[in-house]
Amino acid sequence: MSLAQNIIGMALSAVDGQNVQKINRVNVRAGELRGIVPMLLTLYFGLAAENTIAAGAELCVEYVPPLGKCRACNIVFPIKNYRYVCSECQAGDVQIIAGTELLLKDIEVS
């Protein structure tokens, strides 16, 4: 619920002071490693939007797959099944470079 409230809060702040009557759609990029349950996020988004100009807005989430970068050989590779081991050299010193983000991409308004 707090994640949905934060998304609504960011959207409302972004249009504050603008001549916006209604927020129709909120587009978000979310890393798969955030552990978001899409159905619950959509439900809580609708509840958080009630009694605001975002009431009835559609939430569209683009899920970002996890990527790692090996600190030993510098290769970038997809992380699968939570296996944080380089696919090239098998080193375990991996930096996560994608898959944990949560970004408000854009907002469609009228």
CATH class of the domain at 2-65 and 99-109: Alpha Beta
SSE pattern: HEHEEEEE
What shape does the CA trace take? elongated
CATH architecture of the domain at 2-65 and 99-109: 2-Layer Sandwich
In CATH terms, what is the fold-level topology of the domain at 2-65 and 99-109? hypothetical protein PF0899 fold
Report the sheet-strand fraction.
25-35%
How would you explain this protein's 3D organization?
With about 110 residues, the protein is an alpha+beta fold. It has a domain at about 1-65 and about 100-110: hypothetical protein PF0899 fold (2-Layer Sandwich). Helix content is about 25%, strand content about 35%. It has a 3-stranded mixed beta sheet, covered by helices on one side. Strands 4-3-5 form a 3-stranded antiparallel beta sheet, with no helix packed on it. Helix 2 (about 40-50) links the parallel strand 1 (about 25-30) and strand 2. The two termini are about 25 Å apart. The model has no long low-confidence stretch (mean pLDDT about 95).
